[in-house]
Amino acid sequence: MIGYALNISRMAKQITTRRRFIYNAALAGVGLPLIGASGFCNGDTSQQNLQKQNPDNSNKLGIALVGLGSYATHQLAPALQQTKHAYLAGIVTGTPSKIDTWQQRYSMPDANVYNYSNFDEIIKNKAIDIVYVVLPNSMHAEYVIRAAKAGKHVICEKPMAITVDDCTAMINACQNAGRMLSIGYRLHFEPYNLTMARLGTQRVYGAIKKIDTGFGFTIGDPTQWRLKKALSGGGPLQDVGIYSINATCYTSGQVPTSVIAQEGPKTDLQKFAEVEQSLSWQFTMPDGYTAYGKSSYAENYNYITAYTAKGDFGLTSAFGYNGQKGFTPDGIMQLPAINQQAAQIDDFAQCIINKKATIVPGQLGRRDVILMQAIYESIYTGKSVAIKMPDG
Ligand code: NDP
């Protein structure tokens, strides 16, 4: 528990303490990587050949992306063209037809291309320092553990895993290998969410009396793995509700002590045959107030509000890759847009280089899996579920 509090405190310290939210020279103090002079935005694939034009990656850590799906292709690979301390060195894919495009786009030698069968040979590859697991949720544990056994530092996408035991096995595997593990919690490096953490934990507007948050979107393709429980571990809670849970913790600086949760109605029984379509929950926080949350695969929303005696502060567009919008009793937040993924990856690379703990470790990923499991347990039992975190 102390570890979580320290993480949140370090997160909050990363931001300026100014009451006015105009961003200025304090950027350097935030510890965020600057957006490149080119002004490339996240997801911009027009910079495809940047790596080719700037081949000097000698001082950077090499990253191999595992699973070349949407997030790896449209967010992480472009972000890795902006990182200062890491670069895209390799790929691991089960789809041979993707290899040529990736190799050409990112000037990648054959030696740095793997599939899921020969992945363990990455142990011999000195060009790869970090393995970034971007696979369907239920595959995270296996590939994080294999990466650790191959002597690599690891970034694992959220949710960390679909069971708490898997999370613990992943943490142990990295510890035993003497390698660092972090979770792809990009919003811990994003100025608007950092501001929420600062305003809440430093009680800038007094003690929080209530939190209300939700993240939902309308899911498309009915055949995708997100709708298959064995691969996803569950529905919108696992995919996007986790952001609301995470934000509740960093805004409050606290971990809930119990939860009551309800599954929402299913209007599409076929599409949502294996996972929930929507759900809501109410966390009891250590200070005694309630943090309300909801998530859906059939509605679009994305917000967090913290209520205090001196007014409310929140984000009306909270958890996207960009486009955050926020307000406080003093006015609207005006903060810079950054490339969240580049900030997150660069921070981890610097943690490795400087032998410093990451603010988004495996323990944080496991905390959120514990909270999600408590929500499901409450839905199944119809009862309030007490939440207990493991020591360490
Ligand atoms: P996609 O479905 O787009 O990609 C997943 C990739 O995993 C596939 O393209 C494939 O890559 C590989 N794969 C291996 N086995 C399977 C399988 N059985 N079924 C499907 N794919 C398989 O997913 P996303 O990229 O959207 O999500 C991947 C992970 O990233 C998830 O854990 C998700 O929660 C997380 N994510 C995080 C985000 C964030 O903001 N932090 C945003 C989006 C996703 P290949 O063909 O190369 O083998």
Bound molecules: NADPH dihydro-nicotinamide-adenine-dinucleotide phosphate
Please give the largest β-sheet: 9 strands, mixed
- Portion of residues within helices: 25-40%
CATH topology of the largest domain: Dihydrodipicolinate Reductase, domain 2
Supply the number of helical segments.
12
Measured distance between first and last alpha carbons: 7 Å
CATH homologous superfamily of the largest domain, by name? Dihydrodipicolinate Reductase, domain 2
Mean pLDDT: 89
CATH class of the largest domain: Alpha Beta
Helix and strand run: HHHEHEHEEHEHEHEHHEEEEEEEHHE
Biggest sheet strand order reads: 14-13-12-11-7-10-9-8-15
Query: Unreliable stretches, pLDDT < 50, 5 or more residues?
Result: 1-9, 11-54
Task: Please provide the count of β strands.
Answer: 15
**Overall body shape:** globular
Task: Describe the protein's topology.
Elements: H1 2-13, H2 27-30, H3 50-53, E1 61-66, H4 70-79, E2 86-92, H5 99-106, E3 113-114, E4 130-133, H6 140-149, E5 153-156, H7 164-177, E6 181-183, H8 191-201, E7 208-216, H9 229-232, H10 236-252, E8 258-263, E9 278-284, E10 290-296, E11 301-308, E12 311-317, E13 325-328, E14 331-332, H11 340-353, H12 362-381, E15 385-386
The structure holds NADPH dihydro-nicotinamide-adenine-dinucleotide phosphate.
